[in-house]
């Protein structure tokens, strides 16, 4: 009977030089961006420590607000001409996602600062008023509330300006800002235009309602603003909504820095990226917390020493890591492309902007799925309000409920193009372009 020949011995290992490895960083991350991100990471303990209190008071705590301001968060997107940094999209993604790792509300506070770009579309007189009034201010110079929403306030044209009343929801950061930009509708038969516009309000002109009682992102202070009795707004503090697209295109003619060299649709995508970076940061924060807690917790029923020893927990962690990494690749690649196009003086087509909005919404929802998976895998111990994982679960659910991040409307809009139907006319991939019909004057609650 033949026997198999013995296997030949393995050759001795070759004495090869080590293969160099390393990560090549995006060329669009700046030294200033790295500096601010580093300062943010040094604040993680403070932000986590105050997260419960921020939820209780429905706003950032004073010491977190001051720390974020000191780190340069509210200068990130301010014009260089104001003493700001005018950072590009990739810098914003890195910084805001680092904040989101600590707390979603802190990340949202940084996102609020992007709204100053909306102000810079107004008349120069209005912009200069805000610049002078907010010099040295701690916190956001301005917040937006229902700027492009379907339910807005009411404007009536009068000599020299507008009389404004109304109620505006989701005024994120309003407790810490000096000005507010809000949407209004008006009768186009009394003033030429689209019937929709925005007005700039000073802090004494509106009240902040105590109505931000929500399941997540409680620390963002996204209260409603109200003007119960008509207030006068000078004409230079008004802009018709139909003028925004063209005004966005011309912001770059007046301000330096990557944030303001972005063209019209790139500006909108940059704001979306800042929003999605919060979800990305929260997914990364949940992964880190999962690793810490899984190594300490014992399973409820299985005989493993810790949750970390469970194969099912390892699979969950791997899946969550993959979802987070895929989301990061999507978000970061869009940011890099945006900065590259900005440097080349290029914009995005409406079709590209619409598709990117869908991709970013999908990425944010992947982050939510990852966080939910990690929370369920750890189990009931995450229910304690002191546990950051439950806060990530609640915060990311609120974030992905935002109208601009809901996947199905974005998918329908892009799907229409795929099957050969005309997409709906949209502004920023979220708000329909429409011309208001003449309306009767009267009280608006």
Automatic annotation (TrEMBL):
GO terms for cellular component: cytoplasm. The keyword Oxidoreductase applies. Keywords: Oxidoreductase. GO terms for biological process: fatty acid beta-oxidation using acyl-CoA dehydrogenase. Residues 277-405 form the Acyl-CoA dehydrogenase C-terminal domain. The keyword Oxidoreductase applies. One of its GO terms (molecular function) is flavin adenine dinucleotide binding. Signal peptide: none annotated. Pfam families: Acyl-CoA_dh_2. InterPro entries: Acyl-CoA_dehydrogenase (IPR050741), Acyl-CoA_DH_C (IPR013107), Acyl-CoA_Oxase/DH_mid-dom_sf (IPR046373), AcylCo_DH-like_C (IPR036250), AcylCoA_DH/ox_N_sf (IPR037069), AcylCoA_DH/oxidase_NM_dom_sf (IPR009100). PANTHER family: FLAVIN-DEPENDENT MONOOXYGENASE, OXYGENASE SUBUNIT HSAA, MEDIUM-CHAIN SPECIFIC ACYL-COA DEHYDROGENASE, MITOCHONDRIAL-RELATED. This is Oxidoreductase. It comes from Nonomuraea turkmeniaca.
